[in-house]
Amino acid sequence: MSSASLIKTPAERVRVNSVVFFTSTLLILLLTALLIAVPETAGRVLNEAQAWLSRSFGWYYMLVIGGYLLFVIVLAFSNFGKLKLGGKDDKPDFSYGAWAGMLFSSGIGISLLYFGASEPLDHYFNPPEGAPASLQAAREGLQLTFLHWGLHGWAIYALVGLAVAYFAYRHNQPLALRSALYPLVGERWVKGAAGHTVDIFGMFVTLLGLVTNLGIGSMQVSSGLEYLFGMQHSDTNLLIVILVMSTVATIAAVSGVENGIRRLSNLNIILFSGLLLFVLLNGPTLHLLNSFVQNIGDYLNGAVLKTFDLYVYEGDSDKSERWLGLWTVFYWAWWISWGPFVGMFIARISRGRTVRELVAGVLLIPLGFTLAWLSIFGNSALDLVMNQGAVELGRTALEQPAMSIYQLLEHYPFAKIVVGVAIFVGFVLFLTPADSGAVMMANLSCKGGHVDEDAPNWLRILWSAIITVVTIGLLLAGNFQAMQTMVVLAGLPFSVVLVLFMFGLYKAMKQDSQVEQEQAELAARGRRGFSERLSQLDLQPTQAIVQRFMDKRVSPALKEAAAQLQTLGFQVQTRVGQSRSAMGLRIDMEEGNPFVYEVSLDGYLAAPSEAPVEGESEVRQRFYRAEVYLHNGSQEYDLMGFTPEQITRDVLDQFESHRQLLGRVYS
Questions:
Q1: Strand 582-589 vs strand 573-575: parallel, antiparallel, or unpaired?
Q2: Which residues cross the membrane (predicted)?
C-alpha cells in the first residue's frame, strides 16, 4: 500500500480558484491592453525602469542567483538529500528514462536555436570588457554564454520544483507555489491571502515567460520559413505560424503529461541530438571538440568570479551597466520568470524521487547537452566569421538573431533540407514548454482534487488561448520588446519569494529529519516490545482471517480511540467503514505534521523455505498482516493477536509520542 493514502484527506473535486484565476487573468489583460494602446510611451517607461533596475539591483541579482545554486547543491550533499518526495513507500511515477527525458525537454526551449549562434557572436562584437572582435573576446564570449545557460539557471528550476514537490508529497499541501510557504506562515495563511498572492504573482510571471517563449518561437519558425521559401516577412505569415503552433501545443496539453508531453519529450531529444551531431560531424570536428573541452574548463574556472562580476573596474562604467542589464541581469530575471511553471512541472513528474535525485537530475541531465549545443554552434559561427569571411552571418547575429542559425546552416551540405529540419526542431522545441506551461497554469488556477491531479481540459485550452491572444496583440502592435522588459521587472519581486522558499524548505527538512530519526527509534523499541507476542503467532494468516480481525477488533478499537481523543478536545477525522482493507484516523496538528494512524490489510509472498508444495493455488502462497502506518509510512509491525483494548492503547500511545516529538522538534 502506498503511504500517500495515509496523509490525504478525502479529496474535493477539482474546481477553479476564482480569486487566483480572475485576478491573474485581469492583470495580464490590463497590461497587454496598456502596451497595445500606448506602445511608445509604455516602451519608454519600461526601458527606463529596466535601466534603473539593472543599475540599482544588479548586485542583488548576482548575489541571490549564486545563493540559489549554493543552497540546492548543499541540500543534495547533506543528509537532507536522502529525504524522499513522498511517503516512505512511494515509488516514482515515471521510469528513470522517461523522467530524464521530460527534465531535458521541460527547460530546453526554442531559445537555444535563437541564441545558439547569435549570442557568442554578439559577445564577440560587443564584449563587456576588452577589445571587440579579438581572440580574447571570442573565448570570453563562450564563457559568458555558458554562464547564462549553465548551472545557475537550472538551480532556480531545482529550487522551485523541490519546494513544491516536498510540501505537496510529504505534507499533503496543494501542488502549488503557495505550499512552499507552509512552514513559515502556517496552513491558515497558506490557504488565505498570502497563498493567493504568491500563486497570482507566480501565474503572472509565468504568463510573461510563456508569452515571451511563444513570441520568440513564432519569430524563429517564421524566419526559417521565410528563409527557406524566399518569402517576405509579413504579419500574416507570423500570425499563421502563431496559430498553428498554439493549436498543436494545446492538443498536446490536453493529452496530458503521461501521453502528449512525454512523447514530445522523446521526439525532442532525437531531433535535437541529430541536428547537433550533423553540425559537429560536417564542421571542423576536431576544432569543435577541442573548443568544447576548453569552454568547459573556462566556465568551471571562472564560475565563481563571473557569478559576482559586475565590471566595476572597467573604464566605461555606463557601457558595462548597459551590457549587464541587456544580458546577465536579463537572463537571471528570465530564468526566474520561467521558474514557476518549469519548477511545478518538475515537481509534477518527480513524486517518489529523493531530494538528491531531483537536484542532480535537474542540474546535470539537461546541462551537458545545453553546453554542448552552445559550444558547437557558437564555435562554428565564430569560425565562419573569424576564419572564413562570413561577414553577413556576423551582421545577422546582431540585427536579426532569429535568422542567424539558418545562415549558419547555409555553409553545410544539404543546406535546404537541414534548414527544414531545424525549423521542425524549433517547432517541437517550442511545444514542450508551451504545453507543460498551459497545464501548470491551469493547475495553479484550481483547487481541490488529489495532489497530482491535473486541471480539466477546458481550462488548459483557455490558458493556451489567452497566451496566444496576448502574444498576437503584442507582436502586431510592434511592442513585443516591452513584454521582454516586463519579464526582467517581474523577476525582481519573485526572486524574494524564492528566498522565502529556501527558508521554508530548510525549516521543514530539519524538522522532518529529526522527526524521522525519533520515530525510527520509537518503531525499533515497538518492534522489540512486540517481538515476543509476534513470535508466538507462528502463522501465515489468509486474507479472510485478517479481514475478520480488522472488522471485529480493529474497527471498534479505532472508533473507541477516536471517541477518547474527541473527549480531549481534538478534531478527529476517521476512516472507518469507508474501506475494509484500510481504516484509520487523522488529527491535524497546529505545531507541524498531522497525526495519522492507519491499519492496512497488506499481502506478502511467503518466504521460499515456507512456500506451499507444488500444485497449491497462488492465493495460499501469500500471507496477510494488519500493518500499522503513521504519517511517515509503515511502522513494520502487525496488530494480529491484539485485543481491541490493546489496539486502542497503541493508538493513544502513538498519539502521545507524536505530540512529544512535535513539542521537542518544533519548539
A1: antiparallel
A2: 20-38, 58-77, 98-117, 149-169, 198-218, 238-257, 269-289, 324-346, 358-377, 417-440, 461-480, 486-506
**Domain presence at residue 237:** yes
The number of helices, as runs of H, and strands, as runs of E, in the chain is 24, 7
pTM for the model stands at 0.77
620 grid coordinates: 495460499
Residue 39 domain-assigned (yes or no): yes
Q: Which amino acid is at 454?
A: D
Domain of residue 378 covers: 24-511
Tens digit of pLDDT for each residue in 409-428? 999 999 889 999 888 888 87
Classify residue 604 by its DSSP letter. Answer: E
Q: What's the rounded Cα separation, in Å, for the pair 520 and 526?
A: 10
pLDDT under 50 in the chain at which residues? 1-11, 529-538, 609-613, 615-620
Report d(CA 391, CA 403) in Å as an integer: 14
Residue type, 23: T
Domain match, 371 and 424 both: yes
| 144 occurs within a structural domain | yes
What is the rounded CA–CA span in Å between residue 393 and residue 580? 71
Asked if 295 contacts 376 with a C-beta cutoff of 8 angstroms, the reply is: no
In-domain check, residue 522: no
Q: What's the angle, vertex CA 490, arms to CA 497 and CA 167, rounded to 5?
A: 30
Please report, to the nearest 10 degrees, the dihedral formed by the alpha carbons of residues 33, 35, 38, 39 taken in order.
-150
| The three three-digit cell numbers of residue 221, written as one number | 519558425
